[in-house]
């Protein structure tokens, strides 16, 4: 595979920033809003945003089950912040009716690092990413409370897991797409090429 086609779920969230980061990492990036568009993809990014809104819109637009099927298909998926919440098998502090896609055997706590005004940036060492720490932008960010045996912890911050990989599914609590450092996206593009 020379140039993989990677979609960014474009129901809500920071879609444009992911499209830019993926293009910089030598992928053909495109927004995805309809189930049939998933068939054309080698990989998928679920962006940050508001996880309850994203969950509701996925139901309204008929995307929830096709997205679950995409995750189960083994094609690589990467979720940032709200995307991490969407990829969790279990969720804490979510709405009672909030849906997730699953994909990583982890329990994620919504807004664990605090409210909007408590957002921050921090250097995070991520296993598999060379060149020193990644600058992570944490905006109402979740953290991982616990992981199952199949999930690999790639990074922690302040004693909390903030990056996880299980097979072809990757998730971070933070937003690397907002920093101009596209090493995490390059890592994901490498996952897509390897799949």
Describe this structure in words.
By secondary structure, the chain is an alpha/beta fold. It has helices at 15-24, 51-60, 64-72, 82-86, 183-194, and strands at residues 5-9, 28-32, 43-46, 77-80, 88-92, 104-109, 120-124, 134-138, 143-147, 152-157, 160-166, 169-172. It starts with a strand and ends with a helix.
Tell me briefly what this model is.
The chain is an alpha/beta fold and 195 residues long. It has helices spanning 15-24, 51-60, 64-72, 82-86, 183-194, and strands at 5-9, 28-32, 43-46, 77-80, 88-92, 104-109, 120-124, 134-138, 143-147, 152-157, 160-166, 169-172.
Which descriptors would you attach to this protein?
three-stranded mixed beta sheet; 195 residues; alpha/beta; 24% helix; 5 helices; 12 strands
SSE topology sketch:
Layout: E1 5-9, H1 15-24, E2 28-32, E3 43-46, H2 51-60, H3 64-72, E4 77-80, H4 82-86, E5 88-92, E6 104-109, E7 120-124, E8 134-138, E9 143-147, E10 152-157, E11 160-166, E12 169-172, H5 183-194
Parallel strand pairs: 1-2, 1-3, 3-4, 4-12, 5-6
Antiparallel strand pairs: 6-9, 7-8, 10-11, 11-12
């Amino acid at each position: 595979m020379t140039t993989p086609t990677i979609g960014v779920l474009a129901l809500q969230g920071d879609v444009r920033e992911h499209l830019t980061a993926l293009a910089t990492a030598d992928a053909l990036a495109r927004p995805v809003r309809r189930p049939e568009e998933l068939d054309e993809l080698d990989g998928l990014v679920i962006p940050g945003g508001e996880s309850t809104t994203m969950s509701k819109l996925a139901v309204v637009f008929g995307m929830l089950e096709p997205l679950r099927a995409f995750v189960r298909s083994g094609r690589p998926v990467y979720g940032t912040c709200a995307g991490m919440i969407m990829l969790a098998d279990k969720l804490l502090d979510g709405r009672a009716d909030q849906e997730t896609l699953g994909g990583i055997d982890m329990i994620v706590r919504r807004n664990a690092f605090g409210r909007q005004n408590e957002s921050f940036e921090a250097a995070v060492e991520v296993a598999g990413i060379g060149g020193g720490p990644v600058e992570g932008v944490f905006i109402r960010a979740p953290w991982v409370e616990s992981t199952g045996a199949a999930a690999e912890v790639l990074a922690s911050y302040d004693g909390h897991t903030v990056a996880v990989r299980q097979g072809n599914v990757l998730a971070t609590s933070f937003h690397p797409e907002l920093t101009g450092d596209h090493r995490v996206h390059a890592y994901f593009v490498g996952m897509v090429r390897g799949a």
